[in-house]
Amino acid sequence: MPQRDLHGFVAPLCEKLAAEMGYELVDAELVKEGPGRYLRIYLDKAGGITLDDCERFHRAVQPRVEQVDYDFLEVCSPGLDRPLKTDRDFARALNTPVEVKLYKPMDGRKTYQGTLAGFDRETLRLLTDEGEVCVGRKAAAQIKPVIIFEDEDGGESEL
């Protein structure tokens, strides 16, 4: 299945079914790994997706994507540190720590970390230790949440 069919058929079908079931389609991809082709569907919902949610969606979607040329169907969580891509992702990440990796250096740096303070169609606004930084969305190669874990002693570590 060409990539255009994936986004023209599978993604809309999965998005509609996910919404009906109370989930959000984060992404759908068809990738070749080793000898097999994997159709991967990433779901999320408020409070996080569970294994039971993934199994329930798998059973519902499998008969609807039989005509797609794949060997393995995977329905999974995108993970805590998944890249942020859509306005919905950015809205969910407002006022939380993020890391932005740029294609090209800006002011001598290719990576910025700070709190996502705002965004629009073209720009991300970060509050960093050095002050406010505005980054063009097209200049960002990857934008990910920074996950902070607290240890038993009250210390913190990042993912």
UniProtKB/TrEMBL annotation:
Residues 13-81 form the Ribosome maturation factor RimP N-terminal domain. Keywords: Cytoplasm, Ribosome biogenesis. Residues 84-131 form the Ribosome maturation factor RimP C-terminal domain. It holds the Pfam family RimP_N. One of its GO terms (cellular component) is cytosol. InterPro entries: Ribosome_maturation_RimP, RimP_C, RimP_C_sf, RimP_N, RimP_N_sf. The keyword Ribosomal protein does not apply. GO terms for biological process: ribosomal small subunit assembly; translation. It is found in: Cytoplasm. It comes from the Bacteria. Required for maturation of 30S ribosomal subunits. Belongs to the RimP family. This is Ribosome maturation factor RimP.
